[in-house]
Amino acid sequence: MSQADRPNRLLRPQAGATPVTTFELFFDLVYVLAVTQITDLLLGHLTGAGAVQALILLLAVWWAWMDTAWVTNWFDPDRPPVRLMLIGVMLLSLFMSAVLPEAYGGQGLAFAGAYAALQVGRTASVWAALTGQPRLRRNFLRLLAWRSATGVLWLAGGLAGGTARMAFWAAAVVVDYVAAAAGFYLPTLGRSGPADWPISGRHLAERCRLFLLIALGESILVAGTNLGRRDPDALSGVAFAVAFAGSVALWWIYFDRAAEAAAAVLDAGEEPGRLGRSAYTYHHVPMVAGIIVTAVGDELTIDHPLDPAGAAAVATVLGGPALFLLGHVLFKRAVFGRYPAGRLVAAAALVVVGVALLALPAGAAPPLLALSGYALAALAAAVVLDTRSRTAPAGRSQPAR
User: Fold this and answer.
1) For residue 291, which of 259, 327, 260, 330 has the smallest C-alpha distance?
2) What is the CA radius of gyration of the chain?
């Protein structure tokens, strides 16, 4: 706390050092629906344009959730005014998630209005509540200006249609992500630096871990629901087992060692705001996207295990795990300063085989179940390499975590 700061009863003690609260866990339940809706949207539109549409909405949903995670790093959700504000954000988030499947159809303005309202409304509430905290209040004034500007783009897209809607919304998410990297620069207020965002690193790390669990839970839900709505046979049972093993491998890669070690690094850093922005705010996006894409590939495989893998199947069954691994590589590079070779090799193996399969004539590709098995083997190899690095004998060079 700077010398100009005064106590504020709504703030957590010691810049959010308290653990994640049960209300924050309750808040996350709304975003289970959002992840489910994005998965279903992508599954129903397995084209290049459909992938871009799903990506735009994922980036928006992630940013809405992440902004709230940063807010609760400072504000105590157990304080009634903060809790009431978060309940309002939950309601808007639930409405946004409910209309998400028709965001590019007849519910575009409803989606955009809910999204803009929750982003601008939450930021304005925080700015108004930050009495006695001039540095944070100045930061949220910058943020409010940028969120208001992108809110206009979201609403313009909601009023437009077709490619114009996609263009407005793509511009909005690009502006949001670039503005954060530029410190939310404003001509009159300048830009904010990492030192201006004093956070509890462990709290932010725990929040992001919980969102990864939401995405992994959705992948398991997709596999189980898909198997349950058909008459199970031996092949679909094997496909289901492979999908489940893949989810376990994704969990293992992220949670077995790196998650807790990274939280400790973030918590002990001199500028946790800098690492929180790169490793958590940015580099978790490809991991979440990879889990969603993998879930789509799992559903295709369980439905048609012996069908030749077409372009959409190759992109999801191999592309999802590759995207997750590449995101985890960036995450570990940001936190630990080195690229994990095992994950890079596994991701490269998935990408190379995927590109080769896309060049084959139609119908010449292997069956979906074989492709899913290959993806699982690549993930398992990354897990084994990570385990071997932990158990390497003394005196041997230890790979970076």
Assistant:
1) 327
2) 22
- No. of H helices and E strands in the chain? 15, 0
pLDDT tens digits, 155-170: 999 999 889 999 999 9
Q: How confident is the model at residue 195 (pLDDT cuts 50, 70, 90)?
A: low
Q: What span, in angstroms and rounded, lies between the C-alpha atoms of 375 and 253?
A: 14
Neighbours of 391 (CB within 10 A): 6
1, pLDDT greater than 50: no
What is the DSSP secondary structure assignment for residue 337, as one 8-state letter?
Answer: S
Using alpha carbons only, give the angle 396, 400, 401 rounded to the nearest 5 degrees.
Answer: 120
Burial class of residue 233 in the structure, from the number of CB atoms within 10 Å of its CB (0-12 exposed, 13-18 middle, 19+ buried) = exposed
Partnered with residue 308 across adjacent β-strands are 367
pLDDT: is 319 or 196 the higher one? 319
Q: What pTM, to 2 d.p., does this model score? A: 0.90
Residue 171's contacts (CB-CB under 8 Å, 6 or more residues apart) are: 153
What angle (nearest 5°) sits at the alpha carbon of residue 223, between those of residues 284 and 319? Answer: 45
Give the phi and the psi of residue 367 in degrees, each rounded to 5: -65, 155
pLDDT band at 394 (very low <50, low <70, confident <90, very high): very low
The whole-angstrom separation of Cα 392 and Cα 385 is 10
Going from the C-alpha of 370 to that of each of 227, 235, 302, 307, 388, the distances in angstroms are 18, 11, 12, 10, 27
Contact 341, 386 (CB under 8 A): no
Tokens of 29: 């339940």
Secondary structure letter of residue 20 according to DSSP: P
Do 95 and 114 form a contact (C-beta atoms < 8 A)? yes
Q: What does the pLDDT look like over 240-249, one tens digit per residue? A: 999 999 999 9
Q: Which residues contact 48 (CB under 8 A, 6 or more apart)?
A: none
Ranges of H-type helices in 269-361: 272-275, 284-303, 311-317, 319-336, 341-358
Residues 322 and 286: their CA atoms lie apart, in Å, by: 10
